[in-house]
Amino acid sequence: MKTRNIAHRGGAGLRSENTLAAFRNAITLDADGAELDVQLSADGMVIVHHDFRLNPALTRKDGAWLRGEAPRIKDLTLAELQAFDLGRADPQSDYARKHPLMALADGVRIPTLAEVCALPSPKLFTLLVELKSSTDPESADPIALADAALAVMQEHLDRTIFVGFDWRGLARIKSRSPHARCWFTTDKLPGEAEPVLDIIKSAGGDGWFPSYEDATDASVTGARARGLQVAAWTVNQPADMKRLLDLKLDAICTDRPDLLQALEQRG
């Protein structure tokens, strides 16, 4: 079984995250797929963006970086969102310092999920669609987001895996489309994985998507004993990649799909 190389936010170490430029680059690099974050705009469009507010470190309007508290995604229409440019990181920001290899561009817009789905690829390009909701009042309603994302991907379920920390949305998708694949995401666990794996299985989950530190021989064995697939996020160091490749995970999610590919090719 080949471990799928999944470009986190399209490969955020190489291109501006969650943009068509990033997803095109992941396809060019021959990654097996990409993870992306989806939210709802004010006019109900499923857009691809990570934070509940525009990120000032990545966002310009009329050539100027945003300052102060940025607008909420759910308060802006698609047209309003696409007036912002996300092609560069503010060179004075921590984000820029943490992403020194990110290629710079101008005129890069927030895409819709449908636009990402429509990108041509020479092979099946799997999309891990993260439903970006929570109990935070800045979040979209998890049920509305799940319904809207499922509607966009309904004809593409063969290459779609829904993921997310907010399991309400995943449960909604399983209730409406039992054949849709859902991998339940977990943050770093405070204890053993076994009780969490039992909950995921009982909720109808198809997989477990843990922080990479929690993907160990014991936890992966436990997940597979329950019939769950296992992927890990977000894996950027070669030593961690090698350890997880040895575990033969179903997928590794990384900001550096190029590094993971090089390790895979070396065997």
Secondary-structure map:
Elements: E1 4-8, H1 20-28, E2 33-40, E3 46-48, E4 60-61, E5 64-65, H2 78-81, H3 94-98, H4 113-117, E6 126-131, H5 142-153, E7 160-164, H6 167-176, E8 181-186, H7 194-202, E9 207-210, H8 217-225, E10 229-232, H9 238-246, E11 251-254, H10 257-266
Parallel strand pairs: 1-2, 1-11, 2-6, 6-7, 7-8, 8-9, 9-10, 10-11
Antiparallel strand pairs: 2-3, 4-5
Helix pairs in contact: 5-6, 9-10
Q: How would you describe the overall organization of this protein?
A:
The protein is globular. The two termini are 13 Å apart. An 8-stranded parallel beta barrel has the order 1-2-6-7-8-9-10-11, surrounded by 7 helices. It is α/β, with parallel strands linked by helices. It is built from 10 helices and 11 strands. Helices cover 31% and strands 18% of the residues.
Key traits:
267 residues; globular; alpha/beta; eight-stranded parallel β-barrel; two-stranded antiparallel sheet
Gist of the model:
By secondary structure, the protein is an alpha/beta fold.
Unreliable spans: none
End-to-end Cα distance: 13 Å
pLDDT average, as an integer?
97
Number of strands: 11
Largest sheet: 8 strands, parallel, barrel
Give the helices and strands as they follow along the chain.
EHEEEEHHHEHEHEHEHEHEH
Share of residues in helices: 25-40%
What is the 3D shape?
globular
Give the structural class.
alpha/beta
Strand order in the largest sheet: 1-2-6-7-8-9-10-11
- If you compute it from the alpha carbons, what radius of gyration comes out, rounded to the nearest whole angstrom? 18 Å
Proportion of β residues?
Answer: 15-25%
What is the tally of helical segments?
A: 10
